[in-house]
Design brief:
Layout: H1 2-21, H2 29-34, H3 41-52, H4 55-68, H5 74-96, H6 102-109, H7 112-146, H8 148-152, H9 156-209, H10 214-224, H11 247-258, H12 260-267, H13 272-287, H14 290-293, H15 295-303, H16 314-322, H17 328-363, H18 369-390, H19 401-425, H20 431-457, H21 465-486, H22 509-526
C-alpha cells in the first residue's frame, strides 16, 4: 500500500506538470528558462519554498536543532527579511533589465569576463557542492526512514548509490526536459504536500510526548528541555547571536536575492506585482518554517534522550517512530518531491547559466535560441551525471550537514553578492574591480577556512565563518570602491530598461514588508 501511494502521488505530480506546460513554447530561451514569463504569485511562492526546503535542510537543520535547539531557526526567520529586501530593491531592477540570469546583469554592468567568472563559480558550486549534497542527504533520509538496504537485500553503500541515481535520473527528466515551468508547477504541488506532511511529523511527535495531546506535549517538551528554546546563541554555538548582525544577513541576501537557482522563479514572474506578491507570501510562510525544520529535531532529542551518534539521523528516525504506517507512502512521495525540487531547480538553473551565459557568448555566438536550449540540455545531462557520481562519496561528510553546506558555500556566495550590490549602488566602478574582487574574495575565503582555521590558528581560536564572511565582504567592497576612485570607468554606468514585463510595484509591498520584519523581531523577543 505504501509503495502504491508513493508511486501514485509522484505520478500525479508529473502528469499535472506536463498538462500545465505542454502549451509553453520551450524552444525559446524565455519559454524554457523562464516559463515564458508567466508565473503567478502562488506558483512563485510555492516554487521558492520547495526549492529551498529540501532534505539538506529538513534533515540537516533538524539535526542541528537536535544538538542545539531553537537558535538554529535564524536560518529560517532571517530568510523572510532577505526576501523583503529582494522584493523591494533587487527584483524591480532585475525585471526592468529583462534579465534571464544574474550574470547577464554582471555583463551589462561590468563586462563579459565578469559574467564568465560568475557563471563558472555558480556552476562549480552547484556541481561540486550543492547538487551532490542534496542527492546524498535525500538518499540518507529515504534509506533511513524506509530501510532500503533491508528491503532490497543490499549493503548500505549499495543502497546509497541506488537511491542517489534514482533521485538524480528522475530529477534530471523534470529539469532538463521540462524547463522552468515544469519545475515550478511540480514544486508548487509538492509544496502543498510537503507542508501538510511536514506538519504531521511535529503534531504526531508532540502527541506521542503528551499522551495524545499536542499542547500537553509541547508543554512537556519546554519544561524538560528549556535550554532548547533559547534563540540567543552562545559564542561557542553554531550561530552565535552576534553573527545575526554580520554574515547571517549577507548569506540570506545572496541566497534569496542573487542565487540563480532561487531568484530564477521570481525572474519568471508575469509582472513585478506578481513577483513581489510571491516573495512576500513566501516570506510569511518562511517565518513558520521552524515548525517543520527545527521543532522535530527538539522532539527527537526528547524522544531519543540525546543518544543518537549522528544528529542528521534525528529527523528520519523520528518519522519512522511517530508516523502511522498508512501515511508512510504519502510522506515518502512528498519528501521525494522536496528532494527532486532542490535538485532539479539547481540543475535547471545550471542549464540556464551554461546555455545563456557561456555557450551563446563564447562557444557559438550565432546560435539560434533552439540550439542554445538544446546545448543547455546536453550540458545538464553531463552535470547531473557528475553530481550523481560525487554524491555517494560524501557519506563521510562531517556531522552537521546543514552548517557544513552553509560554510562551504561562502567560497562563492559572498564574492558574487559583493559585485552585485556594488554594481547596483555605484556607477563608476570598473570591470577589473569586479574581477579582482570575485577572485580575491573566493581565494581568501578558501585560505581562511581551510588553511588558516584548521592548521594555523585552530578552530577554538578562530572567528566564526559568518564573521569571516562579513569581514571579507567589507574588504571586497573597499577594494572595489578604491579601484573605482583611482581607475574609474570611462563612462558612468546607466541601467538600460526593457519593456518585457509590467514593472508597476504592488501598492502594499512596503507595508507588508514592514509587517514581516516586525514579526521576525517578535519571534526573537519571544524566544529570548
Amino acid at each position: 500500500m505504501e509503495i502504491l501511494s508513493f508511486i501514485g502521488f509522484t505520478a500525479l505530480v508529473g502528469l499535472i506538470a506536463w498538462l500545465a506546460t505542454r502549451k509553453t513554447d520551450e524552444t525559446s530561451s524565455k519559454g524554457y528558462f523562464l516559463g515564458g514569463r508567466s508565473l503567478t504569485a502562488p506558483v512563485i511562492a510555492g516554487s521558492l519554498l520547495l526549492t529551498n526546503l529540501s532534505t539538506e535542510q529538513i534533515v540537516g537543520l533538524n539535526g542541528q536543532a537536535y544538538s542545539e535547539g531553537i537558535l538554529v531557526m535564524a536560518w529560517e526567520t532571517f530568510a523572510a527579511v532577505a526576501m523583503v529586501v529582494t522584493a523591494l530593491f533587487l527584483l524591480p531592477r532585475y525585471l526592468k533589465g529583462g534579465l534571464t540570469t544574474i550574470p547577464q546583469f554582471l555583463e551589462n554592468r561590468y563586462g563579459k569576463s565578469t559574467k564568465a567568472i560568475a557563471s563558472i563559480l555558480f556552476l562549480s558550486g552547484y556541481a561540486i557542492i550543492f547538487l551532490p549534497i542534496v542527492l546524498y542527504s535525500g538518499a540518507l533520509a529515504i534509506n533511513t526512514m524506509f530501510n532500503v538496504p533491508s528491503s532490497l537485500g543490499i549493503s548500505d553503500t549499495s543502497a546509497l548509490w541506488v537511491t542517489v541515481w534514482g533521485i538524480g535520473i528522475i530529477g534530471s527528466i523534470y529539469a532538463i526536459f521540462g524547463g522552468l515551468k515544469a519545475v515550478a508547477v511540480s514544486d508548487s504541488i509538492n509544496a502543498i504536500g510537503l507542508f501538510v506532511g511536514g506538519l504531521l511529523i511535529p503534531i504526531f511527535g508532540l502527541m506521542a510526548i503528551g499522551d495524545g495531546h499536542v499542547f500537553q506535549g509541547l508543554e512537556t517538551l519546554m519544561q524538560s528541555a528549556p535550554e532548547k528554546f533559547n534563540a540567543i546563541g552562545k559564542p561557542d554555538s553554531s550561530i552565535p547571536f552576534a553573527t545575526i548582525f554580520t554574515g547571517m544577513m549577507l548569506v540570506q541576501l545572496f541566497y534569496w536575492g542573487t542565487n540563480q537557482a532561487i531568484i530564477q522563479r521570481a525572474l519568471g514572474a508575469k509582472n513585478l506585482k506578481e513577483g513581489q506578491k510571491g516573495l512576500m507570501l513566501a516570506a510569511f510562510i518562511k517565518i513558520l518554517g521552524p515548525i517543520l525544520v527545527v521543532l522535530p529535531g527538539i522532539i527527537a532529542f526528547y524522544m531519543f534522550k540525546g543518544g543518537l551518534e549522528n544528529p542528521d539521523q534525528a529527523y528520519p528516525m523520528l518519522v519512522s517512530k511517530v508516523l502511522p504506517a498508512t501515511l508512510v507512502g504519502f510522506f515518502a512521495a512528498v519528501l521525494f518531491g522536496a528532494i527532486l525540487s532542490s535538485f532539479n531547480s539547481a540543475l535547471n538553473s545550471s542549464v540556464t547559466l551554461f546555455g545563456v551565459d557561456l555557450y551563446k557568448t563564447y562557444i557559438n555566438k550565432g546560435a539560434t535560441e533552439k540550439l542554445v536550449v538544446k546545448k543547455g540540455k546536453q550540458f545538464g545531462i553531463v552535470l547531473a551525471v557528475i553530481s550523481m557520481l560525487i554524491a555517494p562519496l560524501i557519506a563521510n561528510a562531517p556531522q552537521g550537514l546543514f552548517g557544513y553546506l552553509q560554510e562551504i558555500n561562502g567560497a562563492y556566495s559572498i564574492p558574487i553578492l559583493t559585485i552585485v550590490v556594488v554594481g547596483y549602488l555605484t556607477k563608476w566602478v570598473p570591470e577589473k574591480a569586479a574581477n579582482i574582487s570575485i577572485i580575491l574574495g573566493s581565494t581568501l575565503y578558501i585560505i581562511s577556512q581551510y588553511i588558516l582555521k584548521p592548521f594555523v590558528f585552530g578552530e577554538a581560536h578562530y572567528p566564526h565563518f559568518l564573521h569571516v564572511m562579513a569581514i571579507l565582504f567589507a574588504i571586497n567592497v573597499i577594494i572595489m570602491l578604491l579601484i573605482g576612485k583611482f581607475s574609474p570607468r570611462k563612462e558612468a554606468f546607466v541601467q538600460e530598461y526593457t519593456n518585457e514585463v509590467d514593472i508597476t510595484s504592488w501598492k502594499y509591498v512596503k507595508q507588508v514588508g514592514l509587517i514581516i520584519i516586525i514579526m521576525v523581531i517578535g519571534v526573537y523577543l519571544y524566544f529570548s
